[in-house]
Structure formats: structure tokens, C-alpha cells
Amino acid sequence: MPDLSIFKSPAPYHIITYGTLLGSQFFQSFIGGVVAFKVLTRPQFSQLQQKLFPIYFGMQTALPAVLALTYPGSASPLGTASSLSGVLADSNRWSVLVPLATMFVGGLINMVYVGPATTKIMRERKVQETRDGKKSYDPAPHSKEMQQLNRAFGKMHGISSLVNMGAFIATIWYGFSLAERIQ
């Protein structure tokens, strides 16, 4: 009969959570977003991203917390503890705590500040498009108001992308820490 005690261990839940986080980050950043931008009209792409990003940023925030809670400590009674105690252990500061905190903070920043600010600018651009009788992405010239909104959107989009990339790099970094434990 198979040993079912593994279901009581945090380890499989930790690995599954890590895989879900890394996979969703990779897919959204390098596949789904790129393909959607290429095949959808701007308005369709915008609507899709407005629906996906809150879910994506929520996952980017929640899953690192789940990783911290399911951190599998050492099998040795003298080794590192499991869960938050293990994450906060001095020996895990750079290999566990910093990457998990970076992932969490990156998702949180995008979820609570950058994402909503970007959406607000997109709505303002839509209003300005009505005033100008011209889309924000149409060729120049644009009104001064639209130029300001386009710059503000570009800035927020760039910040979001940088924060997302930082979180993705932290996820890869943590993956190497996990792999080191398997050897």
C-alpha cells in the first residue's frame, strides 16, 4: 500500500504552488500577452488585460504567501523549521525570505497601486479620445491632453513591467534555491 503521509507534508503543496506561480508568470509575460497583443484589436486587447491583470496580480501576491506558509523545513530535527519559522530563519534570509518577499511585494505593488493607476489612465484616455475624435494609438498629431495621458500610461506600463520582471526573476532565483535542496 502506498505511503499516504506525503499528503500531510507541506512539500508537495509547496512545489505545486511554485510551479503554478512560475508557469503563470512565464505564460502571461512571454506568451499570452504577446500573442493577444498581436491578434486582438487594441480595444479587445485592452478589455482582456483589464480582466486578466487583477487575477494575475492577485495570484502574484497570494502564491508567495502560500509558498511561505508551506515552506518545507529540514527532515532533520536539528534542521530548519517548516512554514514561516523556516522562511524567517537567518540561514534562509537570501535564499528564501528575500525572493519570496520580492515576489509578494511585486505582486502587491501591481495589484494595489500600479494596476489601478494604469486602468484609471486608460479610462481617462477613452474620455479624451471622445473629445479629440481620435484614438490614443492613432498616428500623431495628438492633443496636449492625449500626449500627457499617453506618456503617463507609458510610464505606468513600464513600471508595471519592471516590477513584474523583478518578481519573475525572484521566482527563478527561488527555484534555484529549491533545486539546491533536492540535490
How is this structure best described in words?
With 183 residues, the chain is mainly α. It has helices spanning 11-39, 42-69, 83-88, 93-132, 144-182. It is elongated. The mean pLDDT is 94.
Q: What's a quick, concise take on this entry?
A:
This protein has helices at 11-39, 42-69, 83-88, 93-132, 144-182. By secondary structure, it is mainly alpha-helical.
Fill in the keyword field for this structure:
single chain, 183 residues, mainly alpha, 5 helices
Task: Note the overall shape.
Answer: elongated
Report Rg: 21 Å
Determine the strand fraction and express it as a percent band. under 5%
Q: Tell me about the biggest sheet?
A: none
Give the helices and strands as they follow along the chain: HHHHH
Mean pLDDT comes to 94
Measured between the Cα atoms of the first and last residue, the distance is 27 Å
Number of separate helices: 5
Topology summary:
Blueprint: H1 11-39, H2 42-69, H3 83-88, H4 93-132, H5 144-182
